[in-house]
Amino acid sequence: MDDGLFNAAISADDKFFDENRDEILNLEQETKGRNSTILHVAARFVNVQIMKRVLDLKPSLLYKTNCEGNTALHIAASLGHFDMTKLLIMFANSQEVEMRKELLRKQNRENSTALHEAIKYNHYAIVVLLIQEDPGSTLSTNIYGESPLFLAVDRRFYQIALHIIETVADCDYGGRKGKNVLHSAVINRAKTGNYLQLYLQKFSIGSFFFSFFLFFSG
After folding, report:
1. CA angle (19 as vertex; 17, 25 as ends), nearest 5
2. pLDDT at res. 20
3. SS (H, E, C) the chain
4. pLDDT of amino acid 95
5. CB contact set of 94 (below 8 Å; sequence gap of 6+)
6. Rounded CA gap, 176 and 183, in Å?
7. Do residues 4 and 39 make contact, with C-beta atoms less than 8 angstroms apart?
8. Which of 25, 38, 49, 121 has its C-alpha lying 20 to 30 A from 12's C-alpha?
9. What's residue 191's pLDDT?
């Protein structure tokens, strides 16, 4: 990647684009080794203005992946950058419907979506945003067979788990090695004592699933 372009993405030097307006900027160039585009770099360093400029000039970078198969959305979601995640989604929303779904459901080399990444690091606000934009993303599983709901319960991020169940009528319950959400709940019940049951009892959810959930975790 060109040093000037690379440094602009790191330091949020928005003037770089104005100063080089008459030059042809190679925005598709990638870093050595990681194959990151300038959009990936902007996401890593939380430079929203740079991201806006890049997307205006080269919208196709929204879907580009690095060596790990991550888009800029994967990175923003995993690092908990809400404003940047929202910007990327809003930009995708300006595209065709199928293109928007392609971004939200795009899987990296571990078959994880941006939703998986947000759940993995317990970024609740981003999880809410991603599910609001595409409830169907809760049906996706990674290479370990982990659905978003399983991942939340397995890591004891119960606020996220409850949001998924309250919001999505038909989500995937599957997990790794043939386990499902209920298996994980039972295992965590043994580790956490009454915490899981007390937490769940704060919510008045009358679904069969939650009755079953409370039965096994109680």
Report:
1. 50
2. 74
3. CCHHHHHHHHHCCCHHHHHCCCCCCCCCCCCCCCCCCHHHHHHHCCCHHHHHHHHHHCHHHHHCCCCCCCCHHHHHHHHCCHHHHHHHHHHHHCCCHHHHHHHHCCCCCCCCCHHHHHHHCCCHHHHHHHHHHCHHHHHCCCCCCCCHHHHHHHCCCHHHHHHHHHHCCCCCCECHHHCEHHHHHHHHHHHHCCHHHHHHCCCCCCCHHHHHHHHHHC
4. 76
5. none
6. 10
7. no
8. 121
9. 52
What is the pLDDT, as a whole number, of residue 215? 45
- What pLDDT is attached to residue 153? 87
According to the model, what pLDDT value does residue 23 have?
62
Please give the Cα distance from 192 to 186 (Å, whole number).
Answer: 10
- Tokens 């370990």, residue? 144
For residues 67 and 71, what is the distance between their CA atoms, to the nearest angstrom?
10
Angle of CA points 158, 44, 104, to nearest 5°: 55
pTM of the model: 0.83
User: Which residues of the chain fall short of a pLDDT of 50?
Assistant: 190, 193-196, 198-208, 212, 214-218
With tokens 């039972």, the residue in question is 186
Q: Report pLDDT for 170.
A: 84
Which residue's structure tokens are 């956490």? 192
pLDDT recorded at residue 3? 74
8 Å CB contact between 213 and 182: yes
